[in-house]
Amino acid sequence: MGLSICNIITDLHDQELSRHGDTAFPIACYTDDLSQVKIPWHWHEEWEIVLVTEGRLHIDVENAHQTLVSGDGIFINAKAMHAIQNSSQSPGKLHSAVFHPRLIGGSMDSVFWQGLVQPFYSNAATRFLLLKQEIPWQKEVLRHFQIAWKAIAGEQDDFENLARFYLSRAFRSILQNTDFSKSNLSERELAKVNRIRSMMEYIEFHYMEELTVEKIAKSVSVSNSACLRCFHEMLNTTPMQYVMETRLKKAAALLRSTDRSAKDIALDCGFNDTSYFTKMFRLKYNCTPGNYRRSS
């Protein structure tokens, strides 16, 4: 099993495509240094636990913006949109594990799944849980997680049982100490989450076309100002900046996976001016499209 660097690859709806573990043991552990890169917006069907091991990290989960210091962590529920980046110039490092709840819940017919795991897994209102080291039970959750993470990363003897045991203990502590009737998000905030998902999906399907704020707003029947406000509050960006990020992300993927010319890729990704595409690509990736392809 071992350890991996987290490489986020998403589909048209920003769902992560990477497989975390396998069917028999559905978990994967990662370590990342975010001083040079960031983990972009994405979501997955699995749970995720993140522990900050050095520095300060800025973690966005849908419309919640959190800064965590070394020793703190976060539990992210299934299907929650999230992104992580360094919050300063100093190194920001993390350990994370992405795992399907059946690792600890077992069969969907079991009492563990139906009585314990499923109610939390399907709770659309509970998107995340902050884990602070100064709170004893949360510190214990993070300790259990770190033991499981190290067992898998180091491929210790019987690491499968160790990981399942300590992750189960961590989840038990979460259940015992959390009131899930108190939602992370209000009804209004849930509506915002659904709205931003729909606008992001519209952009993913139309990024190669000429897009405007008006078109994006119209896709969910809101005003231009409401569209701008939603992107600012949820993603801390503007609709057109998100369009640019999407186009550059798609272009980078095509540069990595095909031998098509940069000019053709630029046109297919919504850039009518090749020189402008090269300029914006250089701003994002600190190199030309050609150099990016060679280094990839």
CATH topology of the largest domain: Jelly Rolls
CATH class of the largest domain: Mainly Beta
Largest beta sheet: what is the strand line-up?
Answer: 1-2-9-4-7-10
What is the averaged pLDDT score?
87
- The count of helical stretches stands at 11
Q: In terms of structural class, how would the helical and strand content be classed?
A: alpha+beta
Low-confidence stretches: 15-19
Describe the protein.
The chain is an alpha+beta fold and 296 residues long. It has two domains: 3-177, Sandwich (Jelly Rolls); 187-295, Homeodomain-like (Arc Repressor Mutant, subunit A, Orthogonal Bundle), CATH 1.10.10. 46% of the residues lie in helices and 18% in strands. It has eleven helices and ten strands. It has helices at 102-105, 111-121, 136-153, 159-177, 187-206, 213-218, 224-235, 239-257, 262-268, 274-285, 289-295; strands at 3-4, 27-33, 39-42, 47-54, 56-61, 64-69, 73-76, 82-86, 93-99, 128-131. The chain has a six-stranded mixed sheet with strand order 1-2-9-4-7-10, covered by helices on one side. The model is unreliable at 15-19 (pLDDT under 50).
Short note summarizing the structure:
With 296 residues, the protein is of the alpha+beta class. It has helices spanning 102-105, 111-121, 136-153, 159-177, 187-206, 213-218, 224-235, 239-257, 262-268, 274-285, 289-295; strands at 3-4, 27-33, 39-42, 47-54, 56-61, 64-69, 73-76, 82-86, 93-99, 128-131.
